[in-house]
UniProtKB/TrEMBL annotation:
It comes from Sulfuricaulis limicola. The keyword Zinc applies. Residues 97-145 form the LysM domain. The keyword Metal-binding applies. It is found in: Cell envelope. Its main location: other. CDD domains: M23_peptidase. This is Peptidase M23. Keywords: Hydrolase, Metal-binding, Metalloprotease, Protease, Zinc. One of its GO terms (biological process) is proteolysis. InterPro entries: Cell_wall_metabolism_enzyme (IPR050570), Csd3_N2 (IPR045834), Dup_hybrid_motif (IPR011055), LysM (IPR018392), M23ase_b-sheet_dom (IPR016047), NMB0315-like_N (IPR054512). GO terms for cellular component: cell envelope.
Length: 466
């Protein structure tokens, strides 16, 4: 602006002898209008908050849940001189601190560690039933603290999930408790990739998050043993939701449709949400992708010993039958039940070390041995869901290294879990068939398009071991 005015002044002096009185007034008017116009078009602050700033709702969808008055004694910070000059608080001078919750943490612990008095917050949490969320902090989640220019706590935010947060805000001599609900914008994205080294590495390179990769394993884990069956040149295509908040991605949503080409075989899964909002996955013909048993009890492990009638035992130094499959994995790796059932026995099993036997029905039972420890609270008679963690990989009993020994029994007879043919998991409900057929047609057409390139690459490299 100063340069424009200066230029106009120079211009005016150079040609003053040619400007009559009216022209001088017109020039002055032009300068005034130019300054007004430039002021109007100067860009305002960007609506996008800084990377580390707390992102509020716009407008905030909040529900006031309660308040508590702040006494003058508790409103001051211990150690602050009484005669310290109070500085007027402005939003740009306030300070946000983000704290990751540790195991066993309470709100008082977090506040005390960060130099804040916790007394009044503690009284509010104990006296207001709506504040019970603050009594059960979950490790790994975050608390955000906003301090004023004088260091006093102005706001405490507990984000219980990507779309939900609880606020304790200082306002007019008391703290108000509100719950904030965010409505995300949902977008649909797709990712394709080819297996070169491992699903995790190649999935990440293609743009899949770890959580999305695990979802993909859960969907296709009924047909593909990701520890045994993967080959270089296998390919995957995923159509999924992404959740956005004010233009920024905050989380992944559900997988809507997916394809996995494994050793030349193509598997597809289409998501369907029922009337209760529960999402299940089906093949395009309406058959459930779920099976009675998972293919493997340990995700992303490797097979160190297979089912055989004669194997040299590394500890006993003799040949004997090996009536199960060994999955080598680091100590502490979670072990999951391959099907729902009840714990038949749990404890020490001689050469098996720490062992769990699960009875799934009158026909099937499974054995999990050499565990380092059991899941807390698990006992004889406990019911476990399919895929639920029941213990952790170890090397107890007659084991030369950390691994899981897994047995599969049919009517008391040991069978090879890698080759046993399991029945399917049923079909989609009759009342949903027409709607699902429409969805399956739409998503299958999109998978045909986005997966074409990866399928061509897969056909060239199919069968190559990793």
């Amino acid at each position: 602006m100063k340069k424009i005015i200066s230029a106009l002044r120079v211009h005016g002096k150079a040609h003053a002898h040619r400007l009559p009185g009216r022209s001088v007034w017109l020039l002055a008017l032009a300068v005034f209008l130019t300054s007004v116009t430039i002021a109007a078009i100067i860009p305002r602050d960007n609506d996008t908050p800084p990377a580390n700033a707390l992102i509020p709702s716009t407008p905030p969808q909040t529900v006031q849940l309660g308040e508590t008055p702040i006494s003058p004694a508790t409103a001051s910070i211990e150690g602050t001189p009484a005669d310290t000059q109070t500085v007027r608080e402005t939003p740009d001078r306030e300070h946000w601190t983000e704290v990751t919750i540790r195991k066993g943490d309470t709100v008082s612990d977090v506040l005390n560690r960060n130099g804040h008095d916790s007394g009044m917050i503690y009284r509010l949490i104990q006296s207001n039933p709506e504040a019970r969320t603050f009594r059960q902090l979950l490790p790994g989640q975050t608390l955000r603290l906003r301090s004023g220019t004088d260091g006093t706590l102005q706001e405490l935010v507990y984000e219980t999930g990507p779309g939900e947060a609880f606020h304790l805000v200082r306002h007019d001599g008391h703290f108000e408790l509100t719950k904030e609900l965010r409505t995300f914008e949902t977008r649909v994205a797709h990712v394709t990739g080819t297996i070169e080294s491992s699903l995790f590495e190649d999935g990440q390179d293609a743009g899949l998050s770890d959580n999305m990769i695990m979802k993909l394993v859960e969907i296709f884990g009924w047909d593909i043993d990701f520890a045994l069956d993967l080959r270089r040149g296998d390919s995957f295509s995923v159509i999924h939701e992404e959740k956005f908040w004010r233009g920024q991605k905050v989380m992944d949503g559900d997988i809507l449709a997916a394809e996995f080409v494994n050793q030349g075989r193509t598997f597809r899964a289409i998501a369907f949400r029922d009337a209760n909002g529960y999402t299940s996955y089906y093949a395009p013909d309406g058959a459930s992708v779920r099976r009675a048993f998972l293919r493997t009890p340990v995700e992303f492990s490797r097979i160190s010993s297979r089912f055989t009638n004669s194997r040299y035992h590394p500890i006993l130094k003799t040949r004997r039958a090996h009536k199960g499959v060994d999955y080598a994995a680091p100590t502490g790796t979670p072990v999951r039940s391959t099907a729902s059932g009840r714990v038949l026995s749990i404890g020490w099993g001689g050469g098996y070390g720490k062992r769990i036997v699960i009875r799934h029905n009158a026909t099937y039972s499974t054995v999990y041995a050499h565990l380092s420890r059991f899941r807390d609270g698990l006992r004889v008679g406990s019911f476990v869901d399919q895929g639920q963690t029941i213990g952790y990989v170890g090397a107890t009993g007659l084991a030369s290294g950390p691994h899981l020994h897994y047995e599969f029994q049919v009517n008391g007879v040991h069978r090879n879990p890698l080759t046993f043919k399991f029945a399917g998991g049923g079909k989609i409900a009759p009342q949903n068939r027409d709607e699902f057929a429409r969805l399956a047609g739409d998503w299958s057409a999109r998978l045909d398009v986005i997966g074409h390139g990866t399928r061509v690459a897969a056909s060239r490299q199919a069968g190559n071991p990793l």
